[in-house]
Amino acid sequence: MPKLRILLGDDHTIVRHGLRKILEGLADCEVVAEAGDGREAVRRALELRPDVAVLDIGMPLLNGIEATSQITRRAPDVRVLILSMHANEAYIVQALQAGAKGYLLKDSADTDLIRGVTAVAAGGSFFSPAVAKVMLDDYVKQLSKRGITDRYETLSEREREVFQLVAEGRTNKEIAELLFVSPNTVETHRLHIMEKLDLHSAVEIVLYAVRRGVIR
Fold first, then answer.
1. Within this chain, do residues 161 and 116 fall inside the same structural domain, yes or no?
2. Which of 1, 58, 80, 198 is the residue whose CA sits 20 to 30 A from 191?
3. Using CA atoms, how far apart are residues 127 and 209, in angstroms rounded to an integer?
4. Same domain flag for 25 and 128
5. Shared domain check, 99 and 18
6. What per-residue confidence (pLDDT) applies to 67?
7. How far apart are alpha carbons 165 and 160 in whole angstroms?
8. Is the model's pLDDT at 5 over the cut of 90?
């Protein structure tokens, strides 16, 4: 089985070396390149096409959000996991809109880095537990202030299954194969879910899933 090929982008050498040590301690991971700024990260990602690019959100010359946007637009097969010091919903939204598949806090445990890289490489999403908790707490407060209930409870069992798979980044075809239904049926479920939850894009689906604790 081929190793996961990983690009590390961070302007702090010691951080990159720490990440490399963790990842290369795994038999199935290989760090194929490092980048000290966003422009270099984009160049290396387009040149090497790694499976996963782990990018700091605050890199010089080109920030991690813009680097993510350029990479995912020009090399959609490269999955991006954002690194950040901030569990801030605004940053998370920007990262997802740019095409990132995960958001990892720099003070996370080593196991979270491994889980994050593995999850996004497999086509899923990953968010640090602390990020998910902050978003969930904010979401509950918003609901309480507005005096409304969580519409998630209106979803059927099958719709909840589809919702999680969509939030994990699975395609209609992949979901159809997992659930033994047709892609058209999956699309119908997706439309019903978005209507029930008042969601209008893939980014909103992922954000809702993280807030609700459906995905990590």
1. no
2. 80
3. 11
4. yes
5. yes
6. 96
7. 9
8. yes
Distance separating alpha carbons of residues 51 and 5, to the nearest angstrom: 5
What tens digit of pLDDT does each residue of 41-84 get?
Answer: 999 999 999 999 999 998 999 999 999 999 999 999 999 999 98
Q: Would the pLDDT of 148 be above 70?
A: no
> Does the pLDDT at position 144 exceed 60?
no
Q: Which 3-state string (H, E, C) describes the chain?
A: CCCEEEEEECCCHHHHHHHHHHHCCCCCEEEEEEECCHHHHHHHHHHHCCCEEEEECCCCCCCHHHHHHHHHHHCCCCEEEEEECCCCHHHHHHHHHHCCCEEEECCCCHHHHHHHHHHHHCCCCEECHHHHHHHHHHHHHHHHHHCCCCHHHHCCHHHHHHHHHHHCCCCHHHHHHHHCCCHHHHHHHHHHHHHHHCCCCHHHHHHHHHHHCCCC
Strand 4-9 relative to strand 29-35, pairing? parallel
Minimal CA–CA distance to 51: which of 108, 109, 106, 124? 124
Tracing tokens 């609700």 back to the chain, one arrives at 212
Q: Find the distance separating the first CA and the last CA of the chain, reported in whole Å.
A: 26
d(CA 146, CA 42): 42
> Which residue range is the domain that position 95 belongs to?
4-132
